[in-house]
Design goal:
GO terms for molecular function: exonuclease activity; ligase activity; RNA endonuclease activity. The protein is of the alpha/beta class. The strands form three sheets. Strands 7-8-9-10-11-18-19 form a seven-stranded mixed β-sheet, covered by helices on one side. Helix 1 runs antiparallel to helix 4.
Amino acid sequence: MSNGLGWLRAEKQGIYLPEVDCWIDPSIPVGKALVTHGHADHARGGHGHVMATAPTLAIMALRYGEQSSPRPVDYGDTVSLGDGITATFLPAGHVLGSAQILLERAGERVIVTGDYKRRPDPTCAPFEPTPCDILITEATFGLPVFVHPPIALELDKLVGALVERQDRCVLVGAYALGKAQRIIAELRARGFSDTIYLHGAMEKMCALYEAHGVPLGPLALVADTPLDDLRGKIVICPPSALGDRWTRRLPDPLQAFASGWMRVRQRGVQRAIELPLVISDHADWEELTSTIVELAPQETWITHGREDALVHWCGLHQIRARALDLVGYDDEDEN
């Protein structure tokens, strides 16, 4: 099977449109890039021209500084890239501003999903199913073992631990872009009105979410709070801070970790996690397979994770599929 359509190719550095010299989510700085969302394995600094949704551009500016030639695109807008190729940005349901990109030329339709999920999320627009000839899908959780429980069940565990151990704080490791804000927003939707405390690395991204219309309720920094006041409170930090010296300042923290990888019990044991929370911003196995069935593409290209199992599943269901050999997708703990 070839590595593309002629006008679109899968290269190690990303998806490439050679006739207009444009890349989708390139792993290296390029002259012209379309970016699906702000996570570091999709959005890099240093591009000459960047096209993305306004929230994604704001996230990139926060992380990498202002881009030299940013072009914001609204959901549903179709942009001409030249040579008869158009791009339409559609909601992906992953994090704030995340988009699928529909590429069209001469009647051929390709969807580049970036990262996505199908479950409701109060912090971002829901995934929009779009018919296509070729579906380029992630496979971060592309194994049958990864079936994520309803988030309500995981939040019940979190709030229950807080109620049972008022003498401790519950320290939740959650990625600073997307996961942390989703947990906060979901807690607010359940009526949790108490102040939630943040590691300093969370502050700017939470403020960005609120600036883009995502209310997060009362937040405060751990650094500005008497440590004894954190007993019986929820504290959110980056996964890298779990077990760090920073945590020693907290009042007997009960360590929790919010990630789809917590579906594998041994991962929690290895990190000494007392409260594993199976919460992910990615599609699980059932969402991946049901999306392929729903969109019914002529061919599925699979990347970003457990490609082999999903390619095998496609073969069993008479769906043409192949794995892409892209580089740079290795941020497992962020999922």
